[in-house]
Design a protein that fits this description.
The complex is a heterodimer of chains A (about 120) and B (about 110).
Chain A: E1 3-7, E2 10-12, E3 18-25, E4 34-39, E5 45-51, E6 57-59, E7 67-72, E8 77-82, E9 91-98, E10 105-108, E11 112-116
Parallel strand pairs in A: 2-11
Antiparallel strand pairs in A: 1-3, 3-8, 4-5, 4-9, 5-6, 7-8, 9-10, 9-11
Chain B: E1 4-7, E2 10-13, E3 19-29, E4 34-39, E5 46-50, E6 54-55, E7 63-76, E8 86-92, E9 98-100, E10 104-108
Parallel strand pairs in B: 2-10
Antiparallel strand pairs in B: 1-3, 3-7, 4-5, 4-8, 5-6, 8-9, 8-10
Classes of the chains: A mainly beta (about 120), B mainly beta (about 110).
Amino acid sequence: EVQLVESGGGLIQPGGSLRLSCAASGFTFSRKYMSWVRQAPGKGLEWVSAIYSAGSTYYADSVKGRFTISRDNSKNTLYIQMNTLRVEDTAVYYCARLSEKATALDYWGQGTLVTVSS
Amino acid sequence: EIVLTQSPGTLSLSPGETATLSCRASQSVSSSFLAWYQQKPGQAPRLLIYGASNRATGIPDRFSGSGSGTDFTLTISRLEPEDFAVYYCQQYGGSPLFTFGPGTKVDIK
């Protein structure tokens, strides 16, 4: 059974940093592309970042230069380092696995809430 | 950037009825790159349809997707109580890598 479990969320002041983790199990993590998607309270879904198995990374313009996605295949874990956080980064952050053809997100974690507030 | 528009914003229906949800793209999208998700309150999204018309694993056949170019449709036949949720369309490709529509809420009439 595919499982994705996020951790690391919490309350952080504007300008602060936070690192989220996503522990994966039930599939060969190293072979799969992975992504982060966020959802602000009461709002829709916003894609944040993706990392391919070979290490190529992609970012939404809203986080480029502030967020860094990475993976540790030996630990089956996906990360996102979030720096210079803004109030508008407040959201539930979901870890998701890209589908076989990498055109959809076929499994999602339950999410971790990041609140940026003074 | 391709912008996705979903209509209606809210659809009020009764169990047993058919829901027809629309997703329109600002420019042509390959059918291979169009997906639909269901999200219930407090839960993560769930992939329903990929490649515009292919049901994801474990998705009942009352869910079907169709369309091409700029117009795509998600149809939910014989609505069950558990189908009342928010539905998002998503396209892949370009920059940003993934784009989501604003969602359609299907609620109980």
